[in-house]
């Protein structure tokens, strides 16, 4: 049901609920009707079934029969050796496969123990497992979403949905209905989904789906319904086992018949024939294959790759195509500022950021030589910002707390030598205008004292850049939003009026960064002598535009070489992501997954989920051999692509 296309009053009507939520009696009845809000482990095999599965291969059955016959023939040593091989094979296979069977349970870690809901006209805390359709759940920054829901109230609400969509940037949420049909999950701005997280703001949500009916539940269901196919090695081993069994029966029959025909005793001829048949069985074959596969599996585990079934190791040698997610697999799953643009001068930090690594350390030197322009831009981005830096538990560095986009600005500022904690001391915040999705910006007011004695460096450059006013206003937000309230521009320590040339230069820089798949934020400032007491939005007028920051979830440094090795080995890498087409294509090109062809438009190099939904199986079969990047796709689309 397209809940995102319905007005909130229609949603309440169809759920038989209201803004005040359900009564306890209604919730109990619906819990009986819909069941608990949890992922079911459908089709999960018990330890015993996994163990018994190790004895179903044709060759293993033949070995067990051979061992039994050897006992009856008095060949105890041979029988014991054969059984040791069978047991070793079972232990290795069981250990590997049972660990993989438990992997589905990892999805349950994305659930939450308790949530705040409106019930009986009051705000109550209940177990997430007891949520039902019609419940009204209250969210604030830091909360995990326990069920799929339609947003009915949003105050600057943002959700991080990378686990579900692959999109690195948190999504602004609205309570307004959407008109478009067949929107992918990542574009359903008035919906939240189980397993995602709230990173900013607050709001309330009407639960529309729980448990296995959620998008996360659909993924779990698809994972559990994947049909098992035998690998080429398994098929060959089965075929060999069948032919050995047939050959053994034929051998027994021939030897027995010839022996009896030549006057031999019936029982003696039978034992002789059976002994020959057992001798024909290659007892060591299963052991050699199992040990070889187990060693391969162990090498994969050391590289953090869990092999569900041992024979799958063999199929790696037959791979022709690798389909990979983007976020966290090909990229680092952390927003990083890679481009700064001040007065039309672009500074690319990509290489420098890669060299510093993912961990921010206190003692690391600035990544570029600090100057007044850079200090002003990054300090503004870090101060008009609610993210903070927190030291890691092992004291080896810092990580960010808060919105990932704001965190990227704080890290970039620190890597230039401007740490947020020190900035807050030098320029304490005294007022603010919070971010709203309508304005697409936030502003903060800071008091400062120029007389502070500072050593030569970025902090001193920053204070020297500021005029002789008592307060400074920093505003951060979407570039088009900032340009509407700026009438001047900062250029090499001077301030000029924004004319048509400056306007077009800034807009062009913004568009260029956006086409590279980056999230672009602008920074502006103003200097004032007093803070308005009544209408703080007066602060956002006649600002000075400082510059742009471009950020992206950067590729892992080792991936480019891995992609090149795959191509050398004749393997075609394919990237499938829920992120935007521009971002997907930029990353795919950067990694060498997509190679531009003369005469082909960018739109011909990437296919979106919306296009996939309109394609027949035959149409998809025709394009999968040529397309190496897919964007805005849902989990169902990913399965469809792989099967094609």
Remind me, CATH topology of the largest domain?
A: Calcium-transporting ATPase, cytoplasmic domain N
Share of helix, binned: 40-55%
Apparent shape: elongated
Compute the CA-based radius of gyration.
32 Å
Q: Report the major sheet.
A: 9 strands, mixed
What is the CATH homologous superfamily assignment of the largest domain? Calcium-transporting ATPase, cytoplasmic domain N
Task: Work out the strand percent.
Answer: 15-25%
Structural class given helices, strands, pairing?
alpha+beta
Mean pLDDT: 83
In the CATH hierarchy, what is the architecture of the largest domain at level 2?
3-Layer(aba) Sandwich
Contiguous helical run count: 23
How far apart, in Å, are the first and last alpha carbons?
A: 27 Å
Unreliable spans are none
Number of strands: 22
CATH level-1 class of the largest domain:
Alpha Beta
Provide the number of structural domains: 4
